[in-house]
Amino acid sequence: MNFHTYHERTKHSYTSIRQNASYMDWNNQPSQYKCYRDKFEHINLNDQIQAHRFIYRIGGISAKKSYSSGEYFLRTNPSAGALFPNEIYFQVRGVDGFVDGIYHFEVKTSSVVLLYSLDEDGVERYLGLKNAVEGFIFLTSAVFFRSSWKYKDRAFRYCLLDGGHILGQIEASSYLMDFAVRHLYCFDKVSLNKIFGFEDREFFISASVVGVPRGELPESVEFLLPFVDGTGTFIANKIVEEVYENTLICYERRANNRASHFNFRKDVFEETIFRRRSIREMHKEGISKESFDFIIDTVNQSVMSDCDEKVEIFVIVNRVIDMPLGVYHDGKFIKHGDFSRKAGYLCLEQYHLGENSALTIFLASKSKNYQAMYQKAGIIGNRIYLSANYLHIGCSGIGAYYDDEVSEFLELDSEYMILYGICVGN
Ligand SMILES: Cc1cc2nc3c(=O)[nH]c(=O)nc-3n(C[C@H](O)[C@H](O)[C@H](O)COP(=O)(O)O)c2cc1C
């Protein structure tokens, strides 16, 4: 199945929502944590060590919720349905606080697990790099059943969006250390899936280089890690597996090597990373034009990658002081009027968010590189969350929207795919 067919098949519509009422198989609810056995060395992350804080900020636990059914942990990164389908691995070379090696970030225990000690080798060749990297190379994967358990075939979209949020967190954490980040989408994911022992349950979706080229290209690591179950229960999803395989090759890709320039106070930004949350309901409060400009300026900063896809940002302005109401795209209004009720409807009738927000934003693209495009949408979504929360304005990702009706409302041609919605406001 190609991605066009996949995207078409996984659209929500007024009728699809009513006909395919989602059945939740509570007996098969997957775990959200992957934990390697004790025979691998576990190193507790220590917040006094800079490099450890750097890792923790990306996806560490930042809140505990207690319900009658038990305790749940939320993380610095948001995730559709709080299902957290992504896992984070990283190679580190020449960084204080770590032995050179390849690690897994074990979120459940706030530790990192040394999977392999480097021995003049590394993952660089798998990524098509020309030199050894001093610093970090992150590898983000998706354990898709955590998401397909609930979202069925549409889960591939969420694996990529949530994965994009992880990339956004890598960017945010790197900003605090004055490190640049370059994301990679076009590399030998298949070989890496194999040596990491993922079998057919987990797959790599991206890599992020946070380091500098230094010295000759090392030989490729050639270990075979044991399979570790990251869900507890499992049901295959052939559609998700097929669309992953069919979107591995990058077409006509263009690299972007322009760095981003953010304008956050670093101490306040670090605190924002730890208190970031999704707002559950908004109350029709307006935001200032300065806040609007700050969020838009943050979002429009460059995203460095080996495959930079154009993702277009459409903002339904519901309530911004001293701004007209309407739909804003690329610096100008393309529609005037109060569309707040419509915006709430388009967010699958989540009126408490889409209608009551100050801004309801939709991201759209007609790119050919589905994995790169969708993860970029997640990065943009993450920038919106953090810049809004930085200003004490609420934010929520909206993965559930009426695809075709959003396109129609925005007057987009049929080549466009709607990737993500995000609401901003209080
Ligand atoms: C890709 C994505 C889609 C989401 N879609 C929705 C949505 O449609 N409605 C909603 O209320 N929250 C949505 N959320 C918010 C999640 O429910 C929230 O991130 C999760 O419960 C974790 O809580 P936290 O963000 O406060 O840490 C979405 C989040 C992401 C990242």
Provide tags for this entry.
single chain; 426 residues; alpha+beta; NADH Oxidase; 7-stranded antiparallel beta sheet; 30% helix; binds flavin mononucleotide
Question: How would you sum up this structure, described in words?
Answer:
With 426 residues, the protein is α+β, with helices and mostly antiparallel strands. It has 13 helices and 17 strands. The chain has a seven-stranded antiparallel sheet, sandwiched between helices. Helix 4 packs across helix 5 (155-175). The radius of gyration is 21 Å and the shape is globular. The relative contact order is 0.14. Bound molecules: flavin mononucleotide. Residues 74, 78-82, 158, 161-162, 165, 277-278, 350, 396-400 line the site of flavin mononucleotide (FMN).
Summarize the model shown.
The protein is an alpha+beta fold and 426 residues long. It is built from 13 helices and 17 strands.
Topology, element by element:
Blueprint: H1 3-9, H2 14-19, E1 41-44, H3 50-59, E2 61-67, E3 70-75, E4 86-93, E5 101-106, E6 111-117, E7 121-122, E8 133-142, H4 145-151, H5 155-175, E9 182-184, H6 189-195, E10 203-213, E11 219-220, H7 238-245, H8 266-275, H9 289-299, E12 312-317, E13 326-329, E14 332-336, H10 340-346, H11 351-354, E15 359-365, H12 370-390, E16 394-398, H13 403-409, E17 417-425
Parallel strand pairs: 7-11
Antiparallel strand pairs: 1-6, 2-3, 4-5, 4-8, 5-6, 8-10, 9-10, 12-13, 12-15, 13-14, 15-17, 16-17
Helix pairs in contact: 3-5, 4-5, 5-12, 9-12
The structure holds flavin mononucleotide.
Flavin mononucleotide binds next to helix 5 and strand 16.
